[in-house]
Amino acid sequence: MKILVLEDDNAIGSYIADGLREEGHSVDLIADGADGLVQATVGSYDAMVVDRMLPGLDGMSVVKTLRATKNLTPVLFLTSLGGVDDRIEGLLAGGDDYLVKPFSFGELSARIMAISRRPRTEAEPTILKAADLEMDLLHRRVTRGGQTLDLLPREFALLEHLLRRKGRVQTRTMLMEAVWDIHYDPLTNVVDTHISRLRGKIDKPYETELIETVRGSGYRINDV
Amino acid sequence: MTPVFGFNQIRSTPLRLTFLLLTIFALAALACLAVAFEVTRTSIDAAVAAELQQTINEYRGIRDGDDLTERLAEAAAKTDADVRILFYVPDRGSVVSNVASFPPVSGVTVVSDSYIRAKSGSVSDSYLALSARVGAGHLIVAQSREQVEEMGEIFLAVLLIGLLPALLIAGLAGLWVARGARIKIDAIQHTLLELKGGTLSARIEGVEDQNDDLSGIGQEVNRMARAQEALVASIRQVSSDIAHDLKTPIQRVAVVLDQVMNKTTLTEGQEELLSKAIGETERIVQTFQSLLQLAQIEGGAVRDRLHSVDLAEISRDIVDFLEVEAEERGFALSLRIQPDVATCVRGDRHLLSQLIGNLVQNALTHVPQGGPVVVGVTRTGGETILTVSDNGPGIPESERSKVLQRLYRLDQSRTTEGNGLGLSLVSAISDLHGARLTLEDNKPGLTVRIAFPATEPA
């Protein structure tokens, strides 16, 4: 993927750029807002990471201008420690997601992947599969190797979310927001507990583990 | 604006002053009239008494007994009992009188008509009577007090024609003056409420170019509000500056720690120490985040974003999320939602789920022995009530107001996790929603009760 990073802090900028390059992406790093806007308009990027406070032109204005010219490149906003309002303002300006500093690289990477592959408007599948696991969305039934598994509604929702994003890392925060609509930091590892319960039902009794823990990031279901 | 003279306005100071002045004025006028009436009545009675005495003296002048009786009988026949009564009781012989009976009196006495029996015709309502020994018998001469009663009626007329209209006019004028004061006081009160609610730009209108005392107070309030607004703005600027200045160093530390963790080979001991450092960095971030969020919520800017949300649904989601954690730690987290009642409140979904989550996690942290934790949603008298109850040690009565302050922690909880901002956030979120937060005894344990105001129809 081709990614544009607008970040004025050297250390953080190169941390993001280096990390993304290591993952195999092509990255342009720019520190000035006005320069960034020009680059975003002329280059064709798959995703952008934009700091809200930039010299030249602030990040919000950069994205607003882009959106005004019908440029729909997915944008992940970065912001300083903030509160409830920042998130909404960022999304209103046309950002696709929002990350508060400091963040872990895993979180950043997972969120870029999530916004750059927005669900296409193709026919909704009624059956989700991973290896020998099958989820029937119509009858709300899950089987593995032909054996029916008894899942609680929240376990079903969690598994469905992971299956729909098969092969992509989902961080704890992303899971919390998507499955439970919870947008604050509960300061505990509740998501891990939910995952371990789900594993107890769909992975433990079988030879191959479907839910993989991605160190420093979150979880992913693989097709093995 | 509310009606200026509703029933509940009786407590307002200008109205109370008006009523007090009117009452004093009325009482003083009544007292003057009463004294004047009493003085006049006494002098009339004295004149009548003198006249009676003179009449008796005239009859005493007649020496001959038969002549006396004859003269009395003649006078009695001629005198109208309605005006004057003659009642002579001789030691021997029959009573000579123009009435059938009259009670015995001594000295000057007021006698009412209920004691008198008329011969024919009528008698007056009351008489002033004087009795004396005349010849060989007792003579009572009584004069009608109609004059006094007529005077009473005149006084009453004076009262009705003079005093009542005066009171009415004074009352209306007083109310009009009070209304002016009331409108100003309402404006001051309204502005103070707005200021308290976080609208620091609120000002009292129409007081700046006037110089009465209430306008003076209004001008002072406006001056104070301007100063406060400037102060708050500068504090906000300072805290966002601090946050801005700290975010980069904290992010850099996090970046370095992350790089060391992921890009170098570490021994198990080093990795453990590094994990601790990363954990501590996260705690610093969380505390900053909470402080900034607290400032933002208390600033009240979020208020514009509130809309109708279902408290029961939010509770269900957060309980569903935290249930597994509670279970792992030896608690039974449950939900009690009153069936078939409206559970919607005007609020912010994210903040409300944080509020409930903080309360539940607070219980999980501060109840050492585990046990039941119940999240309840009920509706009483138009209010939607959220409760979170545990069976833990509770909070002593004396500490209850303090635990809602920033960074305050009970002594026994110094050693437990948390940054002391959880309940402050709960309190701030509750204030933002116009809800009432109370800490109650769950006997045993703590019940946090939050009453959300009735939602006005959309």
The averaged pLDDT of chain A comes out at 87
Shape of chain B: elongated
Q: What does the radius of gyration of chain B come to?
A: 45 Å
Catalogue the unreliable spans of chain A: none
Note the beta-strand portion of chain A: 15-25%
Anisotropy-based shape of chain A: elongated
Q: Give the oligomer, counting copies of the same chain as homo and different chains as hetero.
A: heterodimer
Strand order of the largest sheet of chain A: 2-1-3-4-5
Number of strands of chain B: 14
Overall domain count of chain A: 2
Please give the count of helices of chain B: 8
The appropriate CATH architecture of the largest domain in chain A is 3-Layer(aba) Sandwich
Alpha-beta content class of chain B: alpha+beta
Strands ordered across the widest β-sheet of chain B: 2-1-7-6-4
Sheet-strand content of chain B, in percent, reads: 15-25%
Indicate the percent of residues in helices of chain B.
40-55%
Topology as H/E string of chain A?
A: EHEHEHEHEHEEEEHEHHEE
**Number of helix segments of chain A?**
8
The run of helices and strands of chain B is: HHEEEEEEEHHHEHEEHEEHEE
Number of strands of chain A: 12
